[in-house]
Sequence to fold (682 residues):
Amino acid sequence: MKIQSYVAGQWCSGDGREDTLVNSVNDEFIGNVVSLTSGFDQFLNYGREVAGPQLRQLTIHERAEKIKLLAKYLLDRKEEFYRISYMTGATRADSWVDIEGGIVTMFSYSGIARRELNNDTFIVEGATEQLSKEGTFVGQHILTSKEGVSVHINAFNFPVWGMLEKITPSLIAGVPVIVKPGTVTCYLTEAVVKAIVESEILPEGSVQLICGSVGDLLDHLTEQDVVTFTGSAATGQKLKAHPNIIAKSIPFTMEADSLNCSILAPDVTPDDVEFDLYIKEVAREMTVKAGQKCTAIRRAIIPVTLTDAVSEALIKRLKGTVIGDPQKDGVRMGALVGKHQRDDVLAAVEQLKQGSEIILNGLENFQSVGVGNSKGAFMAPTLFHCQNPLNNSIPHTIEAFGPVSTLMAYDGIDQAITLAKMGRGSLTGSIFTKSQEHARELILNTASHHGRMLVIDQACAKESTGHGSPLASLVHGGPGRAGGGEELGGVRAIKHYMQRSAIQGSPTSLMAITNQYVRGAKTTSDRVHPFRKYFEELAIGESLTTHRRTVTEADIVNFGCLSGDHFYAHFDEIAAKDSFFEKRVAHGYFVISAAAGMFVDPGQGPVIANYGIDNLRFVEPVGIGDTIQVKLTVKRKIKKSKKPDDKYVTGVVVWDVEVINQNNEAVAIYDILTLVERQNEA
Ligand code: NDP
Fold:
């Protein structure tokens, strides 16, 4: 079988480097990858010219909807991927992380994008900046899709998740992708890309796949392209320093070797639940994916007094790991991805022996199932104990990318902090403690060296997603040795594929550009009340100025009785005189309630519900005898897609509300959100 690439709308292979791929479990032949040798400039152009314009034409919500559809499609076909995944040495549980973990990331991102971003082709970021005294010159940040392609060079260990977690934010950002998977497991990535292409959900050319070498692809990148890399620090640094990448300032996100640590805090004793949780987690991180995880615990930092207790408990647990053919019942740990990878791990094990003692030898005495003599890339968990970790850089530097970890003891919490930081930058760190003081001290003194940290105690252990699981909504990436990049992390990841620009001009110009009302922009008004209009009929900048209302003492008394709020500033003449306001004032909540009474059109109409209030500020006090008036303006419209159970087709209208007094001063400003019926389903 030939493993193929999908480029410029075709499945093909080349006439270059030939790699033979074998089953990690039994050495059986899977197929050959024959690398492409030319055409890389055309593949980039195909993405830029065929897919880019189509993706950019869609709104962010439309792109996110497609991602959701695609995730459902892939989920329906997941069993095909599981079958193939066994050949990588992964157990069903390992493959779940890779396959369903990747698909869940797509669902999560689709939701994040539709919830947190406007339904437009670009992003308006943050508040408008006032740049002049009179408010006629303002600024606003926007993010638009880069007009290039994002090239993702991925590691072998997560052939599905590694691809999906990167292509999802890029596609939602409107940028087509070229995926280059680690060759040794690229047959699984190929199967998923085949499904993506067959689904016909994404615009043609959105996802291209290059199996094998990427040839001179990097020479043809332009200023609008982006590169992400996951793999070894050596390759990452080489690619990051590629002359074309430097010359064109091409963003390069790197995730590389990470010597992640897990700290058992000094308050924990062997009788505590947290002790057992720690042993379980270290063992789990060593054995899931046979330890071939960028987030795995490589350094277990433990109190010196617990060295024997931790060693014994961990060895006992690891010895219970049944290793073997991942398709056989009872097997908990499969094979490494290949014999070459096992050789690399064994070479790293040799290096780790300097200054550390092997206390559990991965080549001896393990229970195995369905493993035939010398076949497959199997290796059992290997545990080191480093006697003098503060003066030995090796366990903090050598990443044995397999089921290998080192115990290192500390004496006093300062030493634990020093050891954690000796990793010189990690993706993940965890702390097991019952003590909030220890949690705070350890986190605040080591977070500078980590991309993500978790604190585990018995209160959260049951629901914890674990040390090694990156999540769509949280940052994945780490400083220093971990590559200095940042993948995932909610909307941040989408923005990595977009250009942020500061736009300056008059409020009216900025309103026209951003499709959002900017205070001070020209507004329009109509004889028809805006609450009588359907979603489609409302224009950005359409405004209603209400009648006026003079606030009386009776208003304050009535509101106080109704709400039960008899705060002195509203009710105590003497205390109010001494107060910040120097007089009795109306409740802020009365002002916004009265405002609603003034701008609402009470009859039945297209406005279905009040969704909430954002950015509320009481700017000036309202006293007895002050006269208020409200200006209500359509600020932003968010079209919602109809779900099968929804009674109405709707959109959210964000209204800018400004309550002013008789001196034309703002007394309250805020946004209200209403759910408004749409006339059309499309
Ligand atoms: P590599 O750095 O060798 O490869 C990573 C990716 O880069 C692969 O897709 C590889 O392709 C590609 N690549 C290699 N050379 C080039 C090049 N010159 N131009 C373009 N692309 C290139 O890492 P491996 O995946 O082989 O893993 C090696 C070690 O890296 C592991 O043992 C582990 O220590 C570390 N690693 C760390 C990870 C982390 O995130 N912490 C994740 C994975 C690995 P190809 O497969 O075709 O060579």
